[in-house]
Design goal:
The chain contains nine helices and three strands. By secondary structure, the protein is mainly alpha-helical.
Length: 302
């Protein structure tokens, strides 16, 4: 999973930063008439809603198991994370592309351009603080892996989404700043339109990348490869087990389900073998605290 990363802290940091940035950028967009600035304002507002959905997903994931949901609600978090990726694609990306195309065909002069620059600089600093907080949590879970490897392997969908949003926001702000500065220097409004389209394309690319990773979790991924290797090594080192045939895992939000097929060491009675299995399972859950369900299929040594 996400190691000791605090996903909720990263979400609240992003929520506070995006709301402050949304207000600042909206005011600047109204004064300047910048399409890039308006696109960024909509992006920040969408991010606020997205973070609210992630918090809702984290709350739903904590619901206890029931007869209708015997394995609990842990995977509800993946649904909301996937929905956030869809919204990032549609509300953020598609709107920005539309706004950019509209600016190309109906250019409007910039007003109060230096106000827009000031707001963008403020936004970059604020978003940078949010990104720094997110990276602090990501680094707790990376375990020496590159950011790209963590992105591909992590099972913490909510942290994955926040990382993608913060990255897109920072790059988008840089695009918007460059677009406005080029427009101010050259007087050519096409740069503002191109900057708006670039922001939209960026959001779409990030949304598709995030959705691709969350889709795998929705279908049903096991634990991270490193985590599974640790589980297999733990079982193989147990004196009660002669041979581990297979270990199947399924990530269920913050919880994990594990099924083990292994050949047990010889025991004098069947009751002794059952007791050995119970000891292994208890120690296994003590070692891997995110394992909520474990199923053991034993094979008796000849």
């Amino acid at each position: 999973m996400s190691g000791h990363a605090d996903s909720k802290r990263a979400i609240f940091l992003a929520l506070g930063a995006n709301f402050a940035i949304f207000v600042a950028k909206l005011v600047a967009a109204l004064f300047t008439g910048s399409g890039a600035m308006l696109a960024e304002a909509v992006h920040s507002l969408a991010d606020c809603g997205n973070q609210g959905l992630l918090l809702l997903g984290m709350r739903q994931a904590k619901r206890p198991p029931s007869p209708d949901y015997p394995l609990g609600w842990g995977r509800a978090l993946y649904f909301w994370s996937f929905l956030v990726a869809i919204l990032l694609f549609s509300v953020g990306g598609m709107f920005s592309v539309y706004e950019g195309v509209h600016k190309l065909t109906h250019p409007e002069p910039l007003r109060w351009a230096w106000l827009a620059v000031g707001v963008l600089v403020f936004s970059i600093v604020t978003e940078g603080i949010s990104m720094h907080g997110c990276l602090q949590e990501v680094n707790k879970a990376r375990n020496g892996r590159s950011l790209w490897q963590w992105f591909r392997e992590t099972r913490a969908s909510e942290l994955l989404v926040i990382f993608g949003e913060d990255l897109a926001a920072l790059l988008g702000l840089c695009f918007a700043l460059a677009a406005i500065l080029l427009t101010m220097v050259t007087g050519n409004l096409i740069y503002d339109a191109i900057g708006t389209i670039a922001i939209g394309v960026l959001l779409i690319v990030v949304a598709v990348a995030v959705a691709r990773e969350v889709k795998a979790l929705l279908i049903g991924q096991g634990v991270e490869p490193r985590r599974r290797a640790e589980m297999v090594a733990f079982l193989e080192a147990r004196p009660e087990i002669d041979l581990v045939y297979n270990v199947l895992t399924l990530q269920m939000g913050t919880d994990v389900m594990v099924a083990v097929k292994a050949r047990m060491a010889a025991t004098p009675t069947a009751c002794a073998m059952i007791e050995a299995i119970n000891v292994v399972e208890a120690d296994f859950k003590a070692r891997f605290k995110d394992v909520r369900w474990s199923f053991f299929e034993p094979d008796i040594a000849d």
